[in-house]
Design a protein that fits this description.
single chain; 549 residues; 31 helices; globular
Amino acid sequence: MLARTNSFVVPLDGVNEWYRYHHLFADLLNAHLRKKYSEQLPALHVAASQWFESHGWPMEAIEHALMGNDRACATRMIVEHAPWMLKQHENVTLRRWMKHFDTAWLKEHPELCIAFAWMHALSDELEQAEGLVHLAEDNMHANPESLDDCRVEICVLRGYMQLILRNIELSLTYLEESVKMKPKFSRYFIVGVELNWDEAFVLRSRVALSGYLSKVNEFYPKLRMIWKHNGLGILAYGSIVMAELYYEQNEFEQLTYFVQRALQLGMNTMNFGVLVPAYLVLTRWRKAERRESELWLPIEEITELCRQRKAPPHWIAFLDAFRVRLWMEENRRDEVERWLAEFEKMRKDLAHSRHEFERLTLARVYLYLKKESEACELLTRLKHETELKDRLGSRIETLILLSQAYRNQKKHHEAAECIRMAVVLAAPEGYVRIFLDEGPEVARMLYALYKSKACSKQELAYIARLLKMMEKEFPALDIQIRVSPELDKLTEREAEVLALIGEGLSNAEIASRLHLTIGTVKVYIHQIYAKLQVRNRAQAVVKLRESEL
């Protein structure tokens, strides 16, 4: 009756189970409570906290514990639930709660310091995180029973922060140290905290060194050896990063293992930061191999999983954006225009703050619909952003798209400069699919750049290798790169080794450049000599010089 007459309560569901007080009545009750029972208020908050905790509502329990000034109880619950909260992206809530604790309290509770340090680290506030880690380290002895847990968490957190800073060796040192301890597991990784919530392709995220492929090759294989039996969240990231790396380098033989491993480890903790990218790389792989009949199956599967498990909304948005990219390939203009209309309904400031993946998709839609001016404006902003953040993979993609937008506007000089800059950035890291996936138009632009000779020798050799692959991928293209039959037999890795021999590098220098052992380099050189039918480096270099590679 009260609900029907809108007198004192408002229903919160359609089954007459949950209600809240009408806000005016709630204000009246709160004012009466503060006036008549102010001295009992802290005890009432503590009682409310206990009730919420016993009924499985930890966040409400913590709120009431803090309002009742029961910091000990709040500390215990925050330490217990912080990993789960960070998985749910409740960083803002943890930040607000942190204001209730002064430095003196934090000094006595190292596990609380670590919880708040993780919150700062995952918000890219590494300086604040480091300050809290120092506070925890200095005062761990105040709570001996949690000493081992704290040491492990500090090692893992430091390893993560050094990874974000791209200090590879130091990161590996900390992470290796963590496995020598007991219990050797980080609670934050066990629950599947998302380390890449703002990026659909892990290889471009900070956890994968922002797309610096050589550093990824240096870090993740070593990490797998350190933690290979632990099944932790970081290993799930290691698997998806390696899968994306092999995809990017066009080495599909390795993909099966790493995609399956990423899916297995991602499912263990229901980590959508691993699962969504794993399904996306699976789809991209099928598309690259022209397996059209199987193309949509992974997208349908992960979309259903996101729906069932109530995935965070940004993963749904990423899947919607990826779907749009496939629609453009299939020329499904109506669906593309519907997505664009929905996106443009957002306020301008909201649209500008959307994740990079969605805005790059928006730029692609503008190009598809021949809205070059809008594409150029958006891509110019993204180019500036990716430069500031040093996000290499995204910088290269932005430059490739910008070159296409300028080309469509007949701004040939600007288009050529953008594709040249993309090559300059991509060549040292060995990017491949980022160009191949853009189709024949980009192949023609690369061919024009190659013929103009407006690059260094190393970059021209890199373009030649890309164009050889594009010849196979787009046989209708009129691209002809002169390569001796013997050189055509070389694998990608053998061609890289030969190119470095041509630069005059020693075996040790080649091993360092390619992150291989000297023994492995010697094996490659032996294979190169056999395929080229030569007996020494000088003869191999002659063969190289005879070819445009």
